[in-house]
Design a protein that fits this description.
By secondary structure, the protein is mainly β. The longest helix has 19 residues. Strand 4 and strand 5 form a beta hairpin.
Length: 300
């Protein structure tokens, strides 16, 4: 399992996350694993649906962009713990324990022994980046994010995403603003499979968004904002090891869980500075995990 997160590190430049011991979903039964990884599902949706525009203006004939986007995401306290439900009779009550972003995992003393919960990554913020390329023709823009699915030793991983954008204000020449609509879809796959079945784990993140955004150019300054509907899901397959020996009838099996992230609506507001073919932009994204992004683009 630990190898799986090295691939996320490569793809998402996330060494600050995965150098602290990893995410031990294999220590949890399915109903607890769902709550443990739910903030990760939310984060991946937040991450992939951020930094997809800094202007609603799309070239009338032909355009090309290469973007590098950095993101700084705040993880709220409510997503750093979850209410444990060990479903084991007897012993002390347990209220809250760590999610993937929390701190130390708690334990439950039952008639059958200790139920020990895994710790989280101890993060209140996450800083990551991504790159993307875009091409436009006749008021429509296609954005791509891509890393081919490759296998290195026991690990297979890859990501793919696209955005399709169309400027609707081109049909209303008297409007004082540029207005566009955009559709987004992003996926991330990570799988670790060895000859030892207990090492098996697979993460498949799928994220969707649709937004309406507008911008106004004032000389070299661009002011922009938008409203976005979005959803995220994380499918996880993993081998449950039951290290505490509390669930003998459930242990040593592969479980499949599907977790929906808390991604619904976001509001974005930002500004950009356009100097010839170079653009620098910054924006704030108000959603369940507030995110600030900084983008650098080369546009032709």
């Amino acid at each position: 399992m630990k190898k799986s997160f090295i691939i996320i590190l490569i793809f998402l430049s996330a060494q600050n996350i995965f150098s602290q011991g990893g995410i031990r979903v294999d220590n949890l039964p399915s109903w607890e694993a769902e709550k443990y990884v739910k903030p990760l599902a939310t984060y991946l949706g937040t991450y992939f649906n951020t930094g997809t525009y800094h202007s609603a203006d799309v070239a009338d004939f032909f355009g090309f962009k290469f973007n590098i986007v950095g993101m700084f995401t705040l993880i709220p306290e409510s997503q750093r713990t979850f209410k444990a439900d060990p479903r084991v009779e007897g012993g002390d009550a347990l209220n809250e324990t760590a999610t993937v972003f929390g701190n130390k995992g708690e334990y439950y003393l039952s008639n059958n022994g200790f139920v020990i919960y895994p710790s989280g990554l101890g993060l209140k913020t996450v800083t990551l980046g991504i790159y993307q390329i875009s091409g436009s023709l006749f008021g429509t823009e296609l954005m791509l994010r891509y890393f081919p699915t490759l296998k290195f030793k026991d690990i297979k991983a890859g990501l793919f995403g696209f955005g399709l954008k169309h400027e609707v204000s081109r049909y209303f020449p008297l409007l004082p603003l540029d207005i566009s609509v955009q559709l987004l879809y992003n996926t991330l796959l990570i799988e670790n499979k060895t000859n030892d079945p207990s090492d098996y784990v697979k993460f498949n993140s799928k994220n969707f968004a649709f937004n309406l955004h507008a911008s106004k150019s004032i000389g070299v300054l661009i002011l922009y904002g938008g409203l976005q509907y979005e959803s995220s899901g994380l499918d996880v397959s993993y081998y449950f090891k039951d290290p505490d020996g509390i669930y003998p009838s459930l242990a040593n099996k592969v479980y499949d869980i599907s977790v929906d992230g808390d991604n619904h609506f976001r509001f974005t507001v930002g500004s950009a500075l356009k100097l010839a073919f170079f653009v620098l932009n910054v924006d704030a994204n108000i959603t369940s995990q507030t995110t600030y992004s900084l983008g650098m683009s080369f546009e032709f």
